[in-house]
Amino acid sequence: MAKLKNEPQLLKKALEVAENYAKNRGYSGFSTTDSAKDKTECLYRLLVNDQLIQPLAIDQENGVNMKHKLALWIARQLPKDHPLLK
Q1: For residue 67, which of 20, 23, 25, 4 has the smallest C-alpha distance?
Q2: 55/28 Cα distance (integer angstroms)
Q3: What is the pTM of this model?
Q4: d(CA 47, CA 22)
Q5: Using CA atoms, how far apart are residues 43 and 14, in angstroms rounded to an integer?
Q6: CA 2: distance to chain centroid?
Q7: 17-30 residue pLDDT tens
Q8: pLDDT tens for residues 59-68?
Q9: Helix (H) or strand (E) holding 16
Q10: At a CB cut-off of 8 Å and minimum separation 6, what does 54 contact?
């Protein structure tokens, strides 16, 4: 798994976009007591369920790989000239 350039910033953007997507689907939102790990896993599973991203192999489902998968997803959604991709 090759690390992306600006991966932490891409992950932050991915979580923001995925959370907006979840709210548009009717999810009430996350509470302030929800951990980042739970939020990441919930949004990852939502995007997999809606077939917006390819699921990880069962033995590779962990926080690090889910974060990387979300960062890859948003990197493909952003325009080519976006500052996070440079």
Answers
A1: 4
A2: 24
A3: 0.91
A4: 9
A5: 9
A6: 16
A7: 999 999 999 998 88
A8: 999 999 999 9
A9: helix 7-24
A10: 48, 69
